[in-house]
């Protein structure tokens, strides 16, 4: 939709609204409060109400989340002024252009942005207030009835514009969803037809090599390659299923996180594993589980590659004290990691990929020296119902 994406146009419309509302207020000030020596109390009351409602209409641009409250406050204020005009008869000539325009702007914005029930209630209540205001304030005469009909037409224009914009938003969102679905299905076809096909070829050739080779060590190595290929093929197929039917994702299981952590460690005797007792009953989304698995694999691989002299590797997985995030920490005492290595190793693609996965979950990654000779990788991943502190993802590397 043009209005939602074209910022210069939106800025121009906002300036036009301010200019028109301000111009109407200045005109009333000059005509009623300057040219007239003692304007009636009603004119002052209606002018003040119109100015206040105009401010509320402008505020909707800066506080879109408070649109319902702003529109309701404007309607209530206009109704109070109409009741005062009907009961107290404070006098004054027919006016209300600023107030009516501001109300119509708020009503149109409500029809555009609010939920259907809220928008309907504000539109109906606002329409009634706009129509009855001139009659209640200035009496049942033909001129006032004509003005009421004119303002009712303007109210209808405001509602129509709001509904048109709402329909345009819905169409744009539907088009975006359709485009994403087409891209997802195209990616699923590529994975199925190309990647899965090549992995299948690797697995088949590995099985054939096991039959031909008689050496036990080579057969064992080929068996490991076959199992890795079969696991990769299964992962690709699961990904294809998820891409074709995104609503059929596997629900999170309580034990899945612990099993995933233990699988990533894979019985490594050099790793000291610390798991919080509450992990077994923790509700964790599948994408968080897979990210934990990737963080552990990448971190342990980096330790073995860049700190082969590490004597103590500690993996700690626990909820934060406020239970808003899951902390995954991998520490080692290798003096060579971060020192004496080339720069590409420090900022390699593994760390970049790990950071991107954590960023996608609105998490935070901290990588760098820890203690006198240690190195730490700390990932903080949001848990359901909680959010990690609103800070940008942090990456620190050794100098």
Biggest sheet, spatial arrangement of strands: 1-2-3-5-4
Number of domains: 2
The Rg value, from CA coordinates, equals 33 Å
Overall form: elongated
The sequence of SSEs as H and E is HHHHHHHHHEHEEHHEE
Category from helices, strands and their pairing: alpha+beta
How widely separated are the two ends?
A: 48 Å
Protein name: histidine kinase
Catalytic activity: ATP + protein L-histidine = ADP + protein N-phospho-L-histidine
Domain Signal transduction histidine kinase subgroup 3 dimerisation and phosphoacceptor: 183-247
GO molecular function: ATP binding; phosphorelay sensor kinase activity; protein dimerization activity
Write a concise keyword list for the protein shown above.
399 residues, alpha+beta, Heat Shock Protein 90, five-stranded mixed sheet, 5 strands, disordered C terminus, transmembrane helix, histidine kinase, phosphoprotein
Chain-wise SSE layout:
Elements: H1 2-5, H2 7-34, H3 41-62, H4 67-88, H5 97-113, H6 116-138, H7 142-212, H8 216-244, H9 256-265, E1 271-275, H10 286-306, E2 313-319, E3 325-332, H11 343-346, H12 349-360, E4 364-370, E5 374-382
Parallel strand pairs: 1-2
Antiparallel strand pairs: 2-3, 3-5, 4-5
């Amino acid at each position: 939709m043009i209005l939602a994406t074209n910022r210069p146009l939106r800025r121009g419309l906002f300036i036009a609204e301010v200019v028109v509302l301000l111009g109407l207020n200045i005109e009333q000030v000059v005509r009623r409060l300057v040219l007239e020596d003692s304007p009636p109390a009603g004119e002052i009351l209606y002018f003040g109400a119109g100015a206040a409602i105009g401010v509320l209409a402008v505020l909707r641009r800066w506080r879109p989340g408070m649109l319902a409250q702003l529109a309701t406050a404007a309607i209530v204020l206009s109704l109070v002024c109409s009741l005062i005009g009907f009961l107290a008869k404070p006098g004054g000539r027919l006016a209300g252009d600023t107030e009516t325009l501001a109300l119509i702007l708020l009503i149109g914005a409500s029809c555009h942005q609010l939920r259907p029930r809220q928008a309907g209630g504000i539109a109906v209540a606002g329409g009634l207030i706009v129509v009855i205001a001139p009659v209640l304030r200035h009496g049942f005469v033909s001129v006032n009835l004509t003005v009421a009909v004119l303002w009712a037409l303007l109210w209808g224009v405001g509602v129509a514009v709001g509904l048109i914009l709402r329909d345009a938003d819905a169409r744009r969102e539907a088009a975006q969803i359709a485009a994403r679905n087409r891209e997802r299905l195209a990616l699923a076809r590529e994975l199925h037809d190309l990647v899965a096909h090549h992995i299948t070829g690797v697995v088949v050739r590995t099985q054939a090599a096991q039959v031909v080779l008689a050496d036990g060590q080579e057969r064992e190595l080929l068996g490991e390659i076959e199992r890795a290929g079969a696991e990769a093929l299964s992962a690709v197929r699961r990904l294809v299923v998820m891409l074709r039917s995104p609503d059929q994702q596997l629900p999170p299981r309580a034990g899945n996180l612990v099993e995933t952590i233990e699988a990533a460690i894979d019985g490594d005797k050099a790793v000291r594993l610390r798991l919080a007792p509450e992990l077994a009953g923790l509700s964790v989304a599948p994408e968080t589980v897979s990210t934990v698995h990737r963080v552990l694999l990448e971190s342990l691989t980096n330790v073995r590659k860049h700190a082969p002299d590490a004597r103590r590797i500690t993996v700690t997985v626990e909820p934060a004290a406020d239970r808003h995030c899951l902390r995954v920490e991998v520490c080692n005492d290798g003096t060579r990691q971060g020192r004496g290595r080339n720069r590409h190793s420090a900022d390699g693609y593994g760390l970049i990929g790990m950071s991107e996965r954590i960023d996608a979950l609105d998490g935070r990654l901290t990588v760098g020296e820890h203690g006198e000779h240690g190195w730490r990788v700390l990932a903080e991943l949001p848990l359901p119902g909680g959010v990690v502190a609103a800070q940008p993802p942090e990456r620190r590397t050794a100098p």
